[in-house]
C-alpha cells in the first residue's frame, strides 16, 4: 500500500440487552510535517464522538499502531462495518 493511501476503518459494537451502540473509527492521514497520524474517533452511534490523534514518524509506524488498535477493539467485541455502509457514524 502506498504511503499516500488513506486507510479508514469503521467498527461497530451493538448489544441491545445493555443499550450499547458504539462506533470506533481508525484512520491514517498525512501530517503537516511529513509524518503520519493515526486518528481514532469513538462514540455512541448517532452522536458526535471524541477524536484522538497520535503522531508517528512514518506511515509504517502508523499502520502498526492501527493494526494494534484494530486487534484490541476486535477482542472487545467490535466488528468491521461492511464496506457498503461507509456513511459517517454520526
Overview of this protein structure:
The structure is a single chain. The mean pLDDT is 86. Strands 4-3-2-1-5 form a five-stranded antiparallel beta sheet, covered by helices on one side. It has one helix at residues 59-75; strands spanning 7-15, 20-30, 36-44, 50-56, 79-80. 19% of the residues lie in helices and 42% in strands. The protein is of the alpha+beta class and 90 residues long. It is built from one helix and five strands; from the N terminus they run ββββαβ. The chain is elongated and about 45 Å long.
Q: Report low-confidence residues grouped into runs of 5 or more.
A: none
Mind summarizing the main beta sheet? 5 strands, antiparallel
* Ends distance: 28 Å
β-strand percent reads 35-45%
Record the strand order, biggest sheet. Answer: 4-3-2-1-5
Descriptive keywords:
90 residues, alpha+beta, five-stranded antiparallel beta sheet, 1 helix, 5 strands, 42% strand
List the helices and strands and how they pair.
Layout: E1 7-15, E2 20-30, E3 36-44, E4 50-56, H1 59-75, E5 79-80
Antiparallel strand pairs: 1-2, 1-5, 2-3, 3-4
What's this, in brief?
The chain is an alpha+beta fold. The chain has one helix and five strands; from the N terminus they run E-E-E-E-H-E.
Amino acid at each position: 500500500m502506498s504511503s499516500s493511501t488513506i486507510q479508514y476503518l469503521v467498527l461497530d459494537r451493538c448489544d441491545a440487552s445493555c443499550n450499547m451502540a458504539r462506533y470506533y473509527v481508525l484512520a491514517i492521514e498525512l501530517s503537516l510535517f511529513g509524518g503520519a497520524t493515526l486518528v481514532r474517533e469513538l462514540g455512541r452511534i448517532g452522536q458526535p464522538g471524541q477524536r484522538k490523534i497520535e503522531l508517528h514518524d512514518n506511515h509504517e509506524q502508523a499502520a502498526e499502531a492501527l493494526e494494534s488498535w484494530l486487534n484490541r477493539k476486535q477482542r472487545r467485541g467490535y466488528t468491521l462495518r461492511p464496506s457498503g455502509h461507509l456513511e459517517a457514524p454520526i
